[in-house]
Specification:
single chain; 7 strands; alpha/beta; about 45% helix; seven-stranded parallel β-sheet
């Protein structure tokens, strides 16, 4: 980062660090991969869509790693490849997630429950385990999970029990890993976004009644965009947040403050 920047801004500098970002082929994951690269990090982009990943990686000078995180063998190969191509990771941002059932809790299929928990909770845990020895070796590291306010408050008319359970689980995982790994200089935090348009909820945003309900229930008037969450993640990933660990930071326009 330019030495002319104020000291406070230089704490966001990620030059020379290796970062892994999952869900990086679109939406918030793509935006975070671009933002982290812009601060000097070498970024491994992880997602299923190989062609899309390759294009983004080429644009930011990163490494594309096509992977279905529900496939345990593919997941296990991610970090070894990052190490081989970029070096040991010091930053892990777990963005990948999905919802596999919109059914009421009493009707959610077992397969959908398992897939939701495996992708949204087990995969971030597994990847955290995989990066752990490399962060220990570096003497520092930052893991940031991307959760949701769905893990903290019920949302009337939007049944998503297994999704909510998986996202709340990330906060529990965060506090436990933060305490266990603090002695190694590894920080673990979660960012919980509120509503913003994404592939998961695009159908909802096409509903005028839903948009009216959302505007009525969000104190801040502006519609959230992907870049509204980037600042919180960059703070936690960088030395700007070096004394912050075990926290879930909610970025929701005031939704949960009511």
């Amino acid at each position: 980062m330019d030495s002319g920047f104020p000291e406070a801004l230089r704490r966001f500098d990620l030059t020379g660090r290796v970062a892994v970002v999952t869900g990086a082929s679109s939406g918030l994951g793509e935006g975070l991969a671009r933002a982290i690269a812009s601060l000097g990090a070498r970024v491994a982009l992880v997602a299923r869509r190989r062609d899309r990943l390759a294009k983004i990686a080429d644009e930011i000078g990163g490494v594309p790693i096509a992977c279905d995180l529900l496939d345990q063998d593919q997941l296990a190969a991610v970090v070894p490849r990052v190490v081989a191509e970029l070096g040991g990771p010091e930053i892990l941002v777990n963005v990948a997630g999905d919802i596999f059932s919109r059914a009421p809790a009493e009707d959610e299929p077992l397969e959908a429950i398992r897939r939701t928990l495996d992708l949204n909770l087990v995969a971030p845990f597994r990847l955290s385990q995989e990066v752990f020895p490399h962060m220990v070796r570096a003497g520092r590291g930052s893991i940031v999970h991307v959760s949701s306010i769905s893990g903290h408050v019920g949302l009337p008319g939007l049944p998503q029990a297994s999704y909510a359970a998986s996202k709340h689980g990330l906060s529990g995982l965060t506090t436990e890993l933060a305490v266990q790994w603090a002695r190694h200089g590894i920080r673990v935090n979660t960012v919980a976004p509120g509503f913003f348009r994404s592939e998961i909820n695009d159908e909802l945003y096409q509903d005028g009644e839903f948009r009216t309900w959302l505007q009525r229930n969000t104190p801040l008037p502006a519609d959230a965009r992907f870049d509204d969450f980037e600042g919180a993640v960059l703070w936690l990933a960088s030395d700007a947040g070096r004394h912050v660990t075990g926290q879930t930071v909610v970025v929701d326009g005031g939704w949960t403050a009511q």
